[in-house]
Amino acid sequence: VKPKAGVPEGTPVVPPQDLPSRPRRNRRSETFRSAMRESFVSPSNFILPIFVHEDSDKNVPISSMPGVFRLAYGKKVVDAVAEARSLGINQVVIFPKTPEHLKTSCGKEAFNNNGLSQRTIRLLKDSFPDLEVYTDVALDPYNTDGHDGIVRDDGVILNDETVEFLCRQAVSQAEAGADVVSPSDMMDGRVAAIRRALDREGHTHVSIMSYTAKYASAYYGPFRDALASAPKPGQAHRIIPPNKKTYQMDPANYREALRECRTDEAEGADIMMVKPGMPYLDVIRLLKDNSTLPIAVYQVSGEYALLKAAAERGWVNEKDAVLEALMCFRRAGADLILTYYGVEAAKWMAGDALLRTRN
Ligand code: PBG
């Protein structure tokens, strides 16, 4: 065997290995790699979460989510959505910041037909009739306790009573023009009850995206900052649980996600979601392989904050790390991706597409 040209001095001279398979052959050029790629991600997969407020007419930065703002109700929200649409994102999910004086212990502002959420839905549907508007169905932005359900004095989160309010909330959002209502509360039986309530009121065309496998995660912190919606300590006579572990799932559990999946499918969900995203890719795959429904994943506020913080320090290449995470959601089986990186990622992807056509 002769030494090969171009190899550094000292490279061992060896005969070719006798290999039946050399996977590297299919990776040797960008043409091959892109021709044989198994997963694709596009802005059409994205659902952009938007925070809305009306404390002022300015967009307010959220300190634990650099680059994300509470958008001022009105022109500022419309402008932000117009920008997203210009980049190919045509789905948004609305999260309203309720003024403290409108919060009550049972959170009935959730189904005020003239509430911030309902007005934002109307504003966006009037401005962009073909935009798909998703809403969040849960009581935490509206009640003084910061829980997704109604809290009894002894600290129990009431299930069936909460579901009644969630139904009213979903109907009120549908009446305002919502295309998809998304229960994020993890109460039992809420998908079936919401489906019945919507149908009874003539909203058979409104879809339900259920937060099917929503875990009691530490990654929701920045979101709760954004809406001032974290569980609050109780007064003397009321116990307010400091976490959501009696309704959100235990991060240790996998098979339980299948139980939630079967229930939501039987109850009439149109889309099932896994949340958070990156630590739960196995759960995305589980649902994808056990259901015929589309699967969504929520890359949550804490995931965004982690990526931003490392990127700001120069510890990871932000664009590469983010596009990799989004691609991995698709590979794991997610059809839809809720991501605060939507607009930035869409810009990066548009830039890459331009580069490809030029080369
Ligand atoms: C409300 C809700 C939460 C998130 C989405 N809907 C917070 C929570 O459950 O405490 C979190 C989203 C994020 O962290 O980006 N039920």
UniProtKB/TrEMBL annotation:
PROSITE patterns linked to this entry: D_ALA_DEHYDRATASE
Region (Disordered): 2-29
Keyword Chloroplast: yes
Subcellular localization(s) per the UniProt record: Plastid, Chloroplast
Keyword entries, A-Z: Allosteric enzyme, Chlorophyll biosynthesis, Chloroplast, Heme biosynthesis, Lyase, Magnesium, Metal-binding, Plastid, Porphyrin biosynthesis, Transit peptide
Gene3D superfamilies: Aldolase class I (3.20.20.70)
EC number in record: 4.2.1.24
GO biological process entries: chlorophyll biosynthetic process; protoporphyrinogen IX biosynthetic process
GO molecular function list: porphobilinogen synthase activity; zinc ion binding
Cofactor: Mg(2+)
Keyword Iron belongs to the record: no
Coarse class of the protein's main subcellular location: plastid
Family annotation (InterPro entries): ALAD, ALAD_AS, Aldolase_TIM
Catalytic activity: 2 5-aminolevulinate = porphobilinogen + 2 H2O + H(+)
Oligomer status and interactors: Homooctamer.
Record family assignment: Belongs to the ALAD family.
Function field: Catalyzes an early step in the biosynthesis of tetrapyrroles. Binds two molecules of 5-aminolevulinate per subunit, each at a distinct site, and catalyzes their condensation to form porphobilinogen.
Official protein name in the record: Delta-aminolevulinic acid dehydratase
Organism: Chlamydomonas eustigma
